[in-house]
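Notes, Module 5: Reading structure tokens.

Key idea: the token line is not a picture. It is a compressed description, and you learn to read it the same way you learned to read a sequence, by spotting repeated patterns. We will look at two proteins. The first is printed below with its tokens.
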Amino acid sequence: MYFDWRKTIKRLVITGFLFSFGLNFVSGQTNTKSPSAESESIAQSLGEAAAAFSGGDLSFARKLLQKILIAAPENAAAHALAGIVADREGNLPAAERHLAKAARLQPKSPEMRNNYGAILLRLNRKNEAAKEFLASLAVNSNQRSALVNLAQIRFDENNLTAARDLFEKAENIQPDAEIKRALVIISLRLKDTERAKKEFQSYFISAKDITNQADRGELATLLLENDLVSEAIQDLEAAINLDQPNPDLLVLLSRAYLRQKNIKSAGKLLESAVARGFVEAKIYAALAEVYEAAGYFENAIPAMRRAIEKDSQNEFYHARYGLLLVDAKAPAAAAIRLNEAVREFPNSARLFLALGIAQMNDNKTAEARAAFERALTIDPKLIPALAYSAMTFTDQARYEESLKIYERGLALDDKNAVLHYLLADTLLKTTSPDVSRIENALKKAIALDAKLAQAHLALGRLYVRQERWTEAAASLENAAKLDLNHSETFYQLGRVYARLKRAEDSRAALAKFKQITDNQKERRENERRELVRRLANVRF
């Protein structure tokens, strides 16, 4: 799920209108030669206009101000209030005209410059607005509204460091939950997760003031993207307890639980939501994810079918339904359903991708390749379709064709760790592998995704071939930390430790290898019992 974080920050924009209804309105009159009686009359009329505005009578306030400006066209206070009234009435051009005049009449007034900057920001004239805020802050650096508005502009410019500095200054003037959230978002955008963790705790204390559930969901999404799962759950659990939760928050929280492998909590959350009447398609789709994670395909498949019934035009649901059937070892059934779906959605690259996966799992390589090619005709940048298409050639030992497709994918997305790994893995299968290229590809994959266990294992195997035992041990140890149940990792580690004369470590690694192998045998022997257990109508 993707959110525009600029919208989140934009909720912080403060109008900046600091017009003081208690000021001496005569001070706004720049014509000092006016008779005293006339000045007093203007001041009285301004007071009446301010009172009308405060009382919500915008029409009367506007008429009074028009009369004042006919008599005193250079009155800065009158222009400022006229601009504020026009803004409240939705007449932004008139507001800009009056506030620009007020700023020109009193260029040293931080309030006038700030007000004008605020209306320019409303008109999306950000460069001009920034100049007004800077001029306002040069006179008075302790204006929270000017600081926040300028911070918004710097954020939109992707000048996150400057935005952070301005938000921090505004926060020091007056603590605010929205500003605290903005600081967390900036740290997350800067990938400064440790700082984001600390800022989150400060934000969370005051987060009860943020009752907009969409806002809470946006921040939680960004926290999850940065692997701050506990913080995301903390915020989401608090948010759904504030009010009647919306389905988006429930789905997001269930996915956060799944990230923690807390399948039971995710299941309870969504099943209780269904029991309370939350029967939207997205709830059933999320419930299917939970059942799939638990291995209960007999529950996941009907849940996904319910999602389709609720939202039959959602092509993603049709694709997920097909892939669930594939994962349930029913690729032929998946292909039937997906063929029905592509007839209904003939321009869906996602559905043709899913169809190709089903056919590939049903050992129909030619049909699968055709489906992947159709997906790429619709969307030439669909990386998964490229990867699967390459795999169809790899399975037939047509490595050169496979490599060309991986290179095509990397030309589109050089930051894709999996593609770098698959390229290296394919190169390893060739008759004359380019060892240097393989090593570079695996190192690139690991640099992009340090948690890619397969890449660490492949690099370890490469070092074993070259008898680079110390480097092999380091790579294999990383693979073992990331995946404790991969038998080959521990087998290779046992061999490497033996070469390094680390006899005790070698025995331990080989013992782990034997344990994993035995467990895999036991798992195969228990498959029938496992199938019977899954027949139960499981409720978390």
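Here is the second protein, with the sequence above and the tokens below, as before.
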Amino acid sequence: MLKVFLVEDELIVRESICQMVHWTKYGFELCGEAGDGEMALPMIRKQKPDVVITDIRMPFMDGLELSRMIRRELPDTKIIIISGYDDFEYAQTAISIGIEQYLLKPVSRQEFMEALRTIRKHYDEENVQRIYQKKFEKEMQRYEQHYQREFFEKLISGKCALNEIYEFATQQQIDILASAYNIILFQMNWTQKQELWMEEDFEKEAQIWDKVQAFLLNREEFLFFEYHVFCYAVVVKGTTEQIEELAQECALFLKECLEQGKEKLQWFVASGKPVERLSMLSESYESAAKVFALRYTRQKRYITYQQMAEQAAWDKDLNLGDIDAKVMDTKLVHTFLSSGLLEDTEKFVDDYFSMIGENGLKSSIFRQYVVLNIHFSTVSFVSKLGCDEKIITHNLEIDPIGGTVEQARKAAVSILKQGIELRDKGSKNRNRTVLGRALKFIQENYTDADMSLHRAASVANVSANHFSALFSQEMNQNFIEYLTELRMNKAKELLRCTNMRSGQIALEIGYKDSHYFSFLFKKTQGCTPSDYRNQKEREKKVCHG
């Protein structure tokens, strides 16, 4: 039912209009009436009607002024003006305000019903457009938050002015306002090479990822961002009283989902420190990042900033003592080299050294042993990648015999960074091969209605999650943007060179819903398919004329 509000100062006319239509029969509900604009405005603000029918000339506030205020406060409300004055200036003003219908008194029942039917039609069309808009936005969000990365960087940098953040949030239609915030960082990376995956492995990965996305994208308290490849961030927002509970709810849900990957999934969830100002969100991020850096050395997979801050809880977990022999296990270094980020290297080394313990690091000989252990572990790692082991250099000048702990730390950081840079260089080459294979498949099959990110990822023999991150990183646009661009270019070609109807073109390029195709065409090209075809026809005539 569309709600209708009537504003008319003449009681007889108002009653006549009320009785003119069987409102419910035609899908309308008369929700209120008033004798002038001043009385009507607060009632309209409260009722938020879909349609306002108003006279022009009324005491206290006329219909034109009322219409201006309605258009400003309720832009989706349709307005019908009824006037006893056949005056061009009134009609011109009404058009400039954005009035839907302008009727002259006396209004016949047939004329009035036609106006209501037109408004009903416009509402239905706009509702369809809203549905398609939500569908498109959901498709965009499902695969990649690529367009929001810049926003996340603004939030956590601590250097961006609040008005710039609010303006960016408004442009991206992101609700960032809250009285308290927290940040959760999480990682999900599959340990087994995807070339060895079975079909059920791909299905399992898709199920876990779909469950995670559905939870995060459907809750207004959570803003979901891609942080790095395989690493993601959630900005939790809420009241001061509920922020810790919301952060815990989010983290525990992620933990429950990621545990389903069992031994094949390497995952970690880090929860930061809650803050009460948006301008302090960088502090929450820093606290979460410190916890997140522990993912390479801790067996525990979910850690909060509060747990890290409680020394008593850490004493047991850190096993501080003379020397913890387990820390010297090369698997720790290999784990970091396999999935660590270049910017996490110093944090990893700090944590690695702290786990060894101060007593062990007091010995210069043992410090040398620690650095050499990292060196040979890195050499072993890059050798498996097919790199020349001589590429890894150990600069003795910064870590001489008898050098300080800080010098040993710098040497370890230098060696590990070299290993990660070699890994990333090799990974880029492999990624280009994977992406090239997938792009060829997409370009050959983009008109298939069943084309999806999962199909393209399957051809590339990688998981959908990995492919989504890789695609946006290398192509600077997400999968759905790329697919839509290919289809729209083909649609323009068919509109220019054939007489195919819009519905036929939609099916030809992979859209089962012709109306959705028309929506996407207008959204991406700025005009409807028919307008585009007519424009090209006119251009042809001009050229041949």
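Summary for the second protein:
- The mean pLDDT is 82.
- Residues 176 and 459 are 38 Å apart (CA to CA).
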